[in-house]
Amino acid sequence: MPAYSDSTVLMQAPDDAVSLPVRGPVDLDVWALDAARRRLGAGADARLAEALAVELGEAAADARSRGPIVALSYVPEPTLGELARVELSPLVADDTYPAVTVELLHRYLAMPTDRSFRPPEAERRAVPAGPAVRVRHAYVQEPDRDGTGTILETCAYGICPDEKWGLVLLTSWRALAHTDALCALTDSLAQTITVRPTG
After folding, report:
1. What is the mean pLDDT of the chain?
2. Backbone angles phi and psi of 179, in degrees to 5
3. pLDDT tens digits for 92-115?
4. Using CA atoms, how far apart are residues 158 and 130, in angstroms rounded to an integer?
5. Alpha carbon 123 to chain centroid, angstroms
6. How far is the C-alpha of 71 from the C-alpha of 85, rounded, in Å?
């Protein structure tokens, strides 16, 4: 059993978020259309509901491939589709890294890659769930031969509730005009994460 299985991890979801089904059997097409209709409200245009359902279904399938603890699609303006994705995932110590520390999470989250658009920005933070590091990063997705592509921005928290395991809160988006607001959203979500023993 993973170390975090002895703990209950909770995070408060913002009002404009749709919780994605990340485990258990589910018909994603049926779930996504129902979730889209609920987010758009009664009397919503059928084409808008179908378009949002496609986005939510793809988001859920993508999240399920990684198995996070919690995954959210942030949809403050449902007629415009998903603005950002939020995932809270465990990181468990192993033989290579027998202890999860803030320093380890710093290296893990702030490692530049060949697709980094600019150097990561990291700073230490303290949140209720434990000591943490906050990292902002931006990547070039699907670059062409000239290196031109879509910019994906992220704001992440690496949190250490225990040396045997950690938590990674990651918000990602492509709407660069909303960067400040989405970083602020990530900051507020990090403050709502709680860890308590199970039982």
Report:
1. 91
2. -55, -50
3. 888 888 889 999 999 999 998 888
4. 10
5. 19
6. 7
